[in-house]
Specification:
This protein is 35% helix and 25% strand. The chain contains 9 helices and 10 strands. It is globular and about 45 Å long. The termini are far apart. The relative contact order is 0.17. The mean pLDDT is 95. Bound molecules: S-adenosyl-L-homocysteine. Residues 11, 15, 63-65, 67, 70, 85-87, 90, 141-144, 163-165, 168-169 line the site of S-adenosyl-L-homocysteine.
Length: 263
């Protein structure tokens, strides 16, 4: 589909949370690739936060969008979670779920999947309550700024998490590297950066609207993380791509890194 390619500040007006949820997180819609990518993420997040030893006081999720799936394992490993996004409408959508308001998105299939991974499929309600208690702040963020959460003041974090947001927000590879540096600056020394990216993307659809996607290679992601002063502990590449009607990406990758003492 041709038409305008949205990017940058367009997110504030054009990104529709409901359309994003329907496009990528409709569990029974037959969009097999989208479900596979979600499961890949949930498995990797489970591994990282349940058995991988990444945990602590504060986790900051950057570019959360309207989604909470990325926090389902993390909420067991952190005392406090701060979520953030560039747009008001995504923060409202998150708030709806956190406050169990009418019209909130139903994440129960993802919750169930994570509870099964964690070995107790009867814990779904308890996990949802735990996540709702653990999220203490919803903040605006902009990863194109050196202080992505400014003007909010946050304590140094034990973990910064960001999934599928940097390749949407950064216009080029230099901006991507700078954004990674900005995220690393939010971490304590020894803290972890956990990121997942769609690779080789050019654009992706949110409902009928086309948004810019920065084409990244796995090596670009790893190198940016290293140059920002982190040691890459794990970099999991997976050749799955989103449905062609939704995105032009080729493969995805999931990276866990640790900030060194002098970064
Ligand atoms: N993390 C979610 C959302 C990905 S969609 C998920 O895993 O599905 C891309 C997100 O990037 C949107 O929520 C959008 O608001 C956010 N975004 C766009 N520009 C941004 C910027 N400059 N800084 C931070 N986030 C941005």
């Amino acid at each position: 589909m041709e038409g305008k390619l949205y990017a940058g500040e367009d997110y504030k007006k054009e990104f529709d949370p409901q359309d994003n949820l329907k496009t990528y997180y409709a569990f029974d819609s037959g969009t097999v690739a989208e479900n596979e990518i979600l499961k890949f993420n949930l498995k990797n997040l489970f591994q990282t936060f349940s058995s991988g030893g990444v945990g602590g006081d504060i986790l900051i999720d950057i570019g959360s969008g309207p989604t909470i799936y990325q926090l389902l394992s993390a909420c067991e490993a952190f005392r406090e979670i701060i979520v953030s996004d560039y747009t008001e409408q995504n923060l409202w959508e998150l708030e709806k779920w956190l406050k169990k308001e009418p019209g909130a998105y139903d994440w129960s299939p993802a919750v169930q999947y994570v509870c099964e991974l964690e070995g107790d499929r009867s814990r779904c309600q308890e996990k949802e309550s735990r996540l709702r208690r653990t999220v203490t702040q919803l903040l605006k963020c902009d990863v194109t700024q050196p202080h992505p959460l400014a003007p909010a003041q946050v304590p140094p974090a034990d973990c910064v998490l960001t999934l599928l947001a940097l390749e949407s927000a950064c216009p080029d590879a230099d901006a991507y590297r700078a954004a990674i540096r900005g995220l690393v600056s939010l971490l304590k020394p020894g803290g972890h950066l956990v990121t997942m990216a769609a690779l080789r993307s050019k654009h992706y659809m949110v409902g009928a609207k086309k948004f810019f996607g920065l084409p990244l290679e796995k090596e670009t992601v790893e190198k940016a993380v290293q140059e920002a002063g982190c040691q890459v502990l794990r970099c999991e590449y997976c050749p799955i791509s989103y449905s062609e009607v939704h995105s032009t990406n080729e493969g995805i990758c999931f990276v866990v890194a640790r900030k060194g003492p002098r970064a």
